[in-house]
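Retro notes (design track)

What went well: tokenization of the new backbones is finally stable.
What didn't: we kept losing track of which sequence belonged to which structure.
Fix going forward: every design gets posted as structure first, then sequence, in one message. First example under the new rule, 336 residues:
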């Protein structure tokens, strides 16, 4: 059966949120939607709740549950969705979040009228943990077109890294062989970089179409050892992937992004209260040892500002000096 849009929803230990999520998806005003629920083998009653909702819903003939044999992580669930989708466009929705009733209608109207590879919607957050934090990204309508124009826009912080709330051309993703790193819990970083570097056109939409659930324990600011391991593997992947763009004009901007990820990872390690000081030092040393460019290559970069070259060069000094540099930056930020 032909569908205009496929919504992919990974399901893993979200029993307190799954009903809200699914009803927001199933009750869309847009009609031609295929729903793929990817069961990633959680340990709670999420799938049982989902099956009960599906059984009584009028769109049940458009809903399919695909079960993994064992837990594989969010990256693998998105890959399963891409591989099995039948829609012309694909949309990722996390199962603890929700979307507006007209989300797909609004995004589909834009993506088809402008004929772009990706359309990105605005989002806001709902605080379920009394954290008093607000996360949102509100766009103007902005069309970006041209070779590496999307990449330049993305790498300069033009739109968010998360895979959700974006309507992608399925043909585009498949033809460019864009995928998530299956085992990583930080699948968004690598996936979104591939999209940005491959897309020739993207448009942002002012309408808020997504409601991100912010709750205690869901933030990635305070990481444990397992999370840091996944971040480290993602960083290695970014380093290797970036090397294939050395002959392209986007390379300077790309390596600035990668070095930014590197310093961000070091900062996350040293801000973590979930691991011992000794372990933080070991992990920091491992990250600092991952090489990218040597000193000669850094200072041979064309069109790269001196301030950036200095920052890149700092990554070559012993890791304890790198940590001192990060502490100075943190102190200066507090002073502002």
């Amino acid at each position: 059966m032909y569908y205009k849009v496929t919504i992919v929803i990974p399901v893993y230990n979200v029993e307190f949120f799954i009903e809200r999520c699914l009803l927001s998806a199933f009750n869309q005003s847009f009609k031609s939607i295929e729903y793929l629920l990817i069961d990633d083998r959680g340990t709670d009653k999420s799938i049982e709740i989902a099956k009960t909702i599906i059984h009584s819903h009028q769109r049940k003939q458009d809903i399919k549950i695909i079960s993994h044999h064992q837990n594989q992580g969010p990256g693998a669930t998105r890959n399963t969705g891409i591989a099995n989708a039948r829609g012309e466009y694909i949309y990722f929705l996390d199962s603890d979040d929700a979307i507006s009733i007209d989300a797909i209608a609004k995004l589909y109207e834009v993506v088809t009228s402008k004929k772009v590879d990706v359309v990105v919607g605005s989002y806001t957050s709902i605080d379920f943990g009394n954290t008093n934090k607000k996360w949102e990204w509100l766009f103007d309508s902005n069309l970006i077109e041209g070779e590496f124009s999307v990449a330049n826009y993305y790498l300069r912080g033009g739109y968010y890294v998360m895979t959700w709330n974006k309507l992608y051309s399925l043909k585009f993703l498949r033809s460019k062989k864009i995928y998530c790193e299956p085992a990583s819990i930080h699948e968004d970083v690598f996936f979104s970089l591939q999209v940005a570097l491959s897309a020739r056109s993207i448009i942002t939409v002012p309408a808020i179409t997504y409601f991100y659930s912010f709750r205690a324990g869901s933030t990635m600011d305070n990481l444990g050892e397992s999370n840091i391991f996944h971040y480290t593997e993602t960083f290695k992947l970014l380093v290797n992937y970036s090397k294939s763009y050395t002959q392209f004009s986007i390379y300077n901007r790309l390596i600035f992004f990668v070095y930014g990820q590197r310093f961000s990872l070091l900062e996350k390690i040293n801000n973590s209260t979930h691991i011992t000081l000794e372990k933080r030092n070991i992990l920091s040393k491992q990250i600092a040892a991952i090489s990218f460019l040597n000193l000669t290559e850094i200072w041979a970069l064309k069109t790269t500002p001196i301030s950036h070259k200095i920052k890149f060069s700092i990554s070559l000094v012993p890791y304890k000096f790198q940590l001192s540099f990060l502490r100075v930056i943190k102190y200066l930020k507090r002073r502002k």
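Added context from the reviewer: The domain at 3-214 is CATH 3.90.550.10 (Spore Coat Polysaccharide Biosynthesis Protein SpsA; Chain A).
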